[in-house]
Automatic annotation (TrEMBL):
Name recorded for this polypeptide: Lipoprotein
Signal peptide: 1-18
Keywords, in A-Z order: Signal
Taxon lineage: Bacteria, Pseudomonadati, Pseudomonadota, Alphaproteobacteria, Sphingomonadales
Positions of region (Disordered): 23-43
Length: 161
């Protein structure tokens, strides 16, 4: 996973958990240092609702009913930021770089090069990830989802009518 983060955004080793307004805190991953940031109030992410609406509208299959998202954000030692967006209904984990311009911010989530399918891109162990820059381990994913459930920014967004 570390390789994937470096390739995606040139980040140093880090872990990111965005909160819905809580103060920044250290991640609970001892092997992946990083600082939790509250994405909802961060200038590079802000209110994710417009970006999530754009993501839903761009989806290949029409979204039925409310769509549930949890967003966790991280800042690395070098100041690089990333958010992980869990889209529950689509079983996706999207790496979101955000941006200070609101229009670019919305586009950056739709055009993310890292949109993982949680049914295909997750392997049982870190050893199974090997040198892959795309796969993630079940252990890593479970940690992120636990962090998001505890401290993430949650959104419920309706699909287009």
């Amino acid at each position: 996973m570390r390789q994937a983060l470096r390739m995606m955004c040139g980040l140093s080793l880090m872990t990111v958990v965005a909160t819905g307004g809580e103060a920044a805190a250290q991640s609970d991953d001892s092997d992946e240092p990083g600082t939790i940031i509250p994405t909802a109030t961060d200038p590079d992410f802000g209110d994710a609702t417009p970006a999530l609406r754009k993501l839903i509208a761009a989806a290949r299959q029409r979204a039925i009913g409310p769509q549930h998202f949890c967003i966790i954000g991280y800042i690395g030692d070098g100041g690089d930021k990333i958010a992980l967006v869990h889209w529950r209904e689509r079983r996706r984990l999207i790496f979101w770089l955000g941006g200070s311009d609101p229009e670019y911010r919305s586009d950056s989530i739709v055009n993310s090069r890292r949109q993982l399918d949680l049914d295909k891109d997750v392997v049982p162990t870190d050893a199974d990830v090997g040198s892959s820059t795309y796969l993630i381990s079940r252990t890593w994913l479970d940690r992120k989802l636990r962090d998001c459930a505890a401290k993430g920014a949650r959104y419920v967004v309706s699909g287009p009518r």
